[in-house]
Design brief:
alpha+beta; 8 helices; 3-stranded antiparallel sheet; two-stranded antiparallel sheet; elongated; 208 residues
Length: 208
């Protein structure tokens, strides 16, 4: 029975296997995406998840453990600075493995392993949803306009203009009548302007 023997040997010695995965996990956190075989990618996920959990702890002991695995100090400091913001909302599943075909020569199955960023993906989804909703509203409005034009229905602006009464003509007629009332025509054809009678405001107020 193969109890308590987790992990893959990959036809390598323990020292060779450990050195290989240290190099691979260092390049994964440096470039955030690498190409490798399926078996190595699945085993590399265990190393990457362990290091991210150490980075989320953030204490000195966890940093020293990470420095014993990752070969570059700058990558360790970068990982510890970004881990809480990037992976704080989730508790696992920090990597993604995507199969990309077979390698020419030995036809070994090749995969892409990469780090995920859940916060950025959510923001992109919300932006796409808002853009699609705006496009749908515009299309509905255009279709309604097209259908109204085919049926011969007037627009709302034209209907408002028709409903509003023309007050310009009434004003001009009243102005003309007031102007003619102030003028008196003489026999010779000359016009004499008569002053309008002044109204005493005080008398009118007393009468009221």
């Amino acid at each position: 029975m193969r109890h308590r023997k987790a992990g893959l040997k990959l036809n390598r010695t323990s020292s060779h296997r450990k050195a290989m995965f240290r190099n691979m996990v260092t390049s994964l956190f440096k470039y955030e995406r690498i190409h490798t075989t399926d078996a190595k990618a699945k085993e590399l996920r265990r190393w990457a998840d362990h290091l991210i959990t150490l980075a989320k702890q953030g204490d000195l002991h966890a940093r020293r453990l990470a420095l014993s695995i990752i070969r570059e100090k700058n990558i360790v400091h970068k990982l510890f600075d970004e881990a809480s913001d990037r992976f704080g909302a989730i508790s696992g599943g920090y990597t993604r493995v995507v199969k990309s075909g077979r390698r020419p020569g030995d036809a070994a199955p090749i995969s892409i392993i990469e780090l995920i960023s859940p916060e950025k993906s959510k923001e992109k989804k919300t932006k796409k949803k808002t853009k699609s909703a705006e496009k749908g509203k515009k299309q509905v409005a255009e279709e309604q306009k097209a259908s109204d034009s085919k049926k011969g229905k007037p627009d709302k602006k034209t209907e408002k203009k028709k409903r509003m009464p023309d007050t310009s003509g009434t004003k001009s007629e009243s102005d003309d009548s007031s102007a003619t009332s102030t003028k008196a025509v003489t026999g010779k054809g000359n016009t004499v302007v008569k002053p309008k009678p002044e109204v005493d405001e005080e008398n009118t107020k007393q009468k009221e």
